[in-house]
Amino acid sequence: MMFLIIFVFGLLFGGILQFAKLNKYDTISGLALRKDFAVAKAILIALGVGAVLINLEIGFGLATYHTKPLIFGGIIFGGIVFGSGMAILGYCPGTLPVSAGEGSVDAMIGIVGGLFGGLIYTLILPYFHGILGPDFGNLSLKTLFLENTSWFYIFVFIFSVFFILLSFWIHKKEKATNIKWAISGIALAILNALILLTEVADRPIGASTMYPYLVDSVFGITENSYFSKIQEAGHWELIFLSGAVVSGLIFSVIRKDFKFVLLYKNWKIYKGNSSLKRLIWSFIGGFLIILGARMTGGRTSGHIISGGMQLALSSFVFAVFVFAALLITGRIFYGKNIKKLS
């Protein structure tokens, strides 16, 4: 029964992303190119709505916090590596399976690269674990107001309003008319809050742990402390992302736009028509996003969105380095002919 519930959550997750095309290469690479801000806007409104929902349900004893510690070296280096890979690949760990289900060949190759990245991380972790620190613990807005609940909820409301207003300010500056990003962002917040409930799954949405879990299982690299640590989350995410793959397939068939595609519009404009070049960079991008995600213990859905909703300091620091690396890499990798937000 639980398998089916998790699978359905994956279906919903995939459907939410597809509704506003948040899983598409052109949408995510468009953010790196500073041409399309749908992803950033959806994340901001998800943070705003989710912060209220999640902190209220935790306050009523219906859920518990699942924030990630501020492991300074890992957050910085991992954020830079992840953001760079995201710009090159045009996907993140959670959107890869959805787009693969729609027939995106570059996403499929990105998954292969991600699995390889997960494998390499498992093998090299014992040798560079020291550079990931220091660990400052699970710092969040809640830890600052531990003894003053009233002020805590006042600040939650302030943060919530700020994120929501910022998303619409960007929307106005972008001069866009489509508001599907807002609907998807709110839906992501509700889905996160639902899954976090103690009586439902008692965990945040996540994706990147699946990659090392799956590849380590296949190659039998399971007799170590790292695999023991990720086993439960990885198994959950494998089922969840299987639902996301099926979601991509089902909805693309319903829309009658399922097809195998390697080169999308932004890639052709900025990088040309070489299929081999796209295959190589898709693999490299997939490798980088999982390597970076594992260094920080999270990624877009699990760290920035789920962690941000819980107002975890580690998630906000990670987001700063991810988006800085995303934009810088976008300028370098795709060239300087980028349309700026004006």
Structure, described:
The chain is built from 15 helices and no strands. It is an all-alpha fold. It has one domain (2-334). Helix 6 (105-128) packs across helix 10. The longest helix has 31 residues, at 225-255. The protein starts with a helix and ends in an 8-residue tail after the last helix. The model is unreliable at 338-342 (pLDDT under 50).
Record the SSE blueprint.
Layout: H1 2-19, H2 25-32, H3 38-59, H4 72-89, H5 95-101, H6 105-128, H7 141-144, H8 149-174, H9 180-196, H10 210-218, H11 225-255, H12 265-271, H13 275-296, H14 300-309, H15 313-334
What brief labels describe this structure?
72% helix, 342 residues, mainly alpha
- Mean pLDDT across all residues, rounded? 93
Radius of gyration of CA atoms, rounded to a whole number: 19 Å
Largest sheet: none
Proportion in β-strands? under 5%
The coarse silhouette is globular
Number of individual domains:
1
| Element-level helix/strand string | HHHHHHHHHHHHHHH
**Residues in helices, as a percent range:** over 70%
Uncertain runs are: 338-342
Q: Which class best fits the helix and strand makeup?
A: mainly alpha
Number of strands: 0
What's the total helix number? Answer: 15
Give the N-to-C terminal Cα separation. 50 Å
Summarize the structure.
By secondary structure, the protein is an all-alpha fold. Helix content is 72%, strand content 0%.
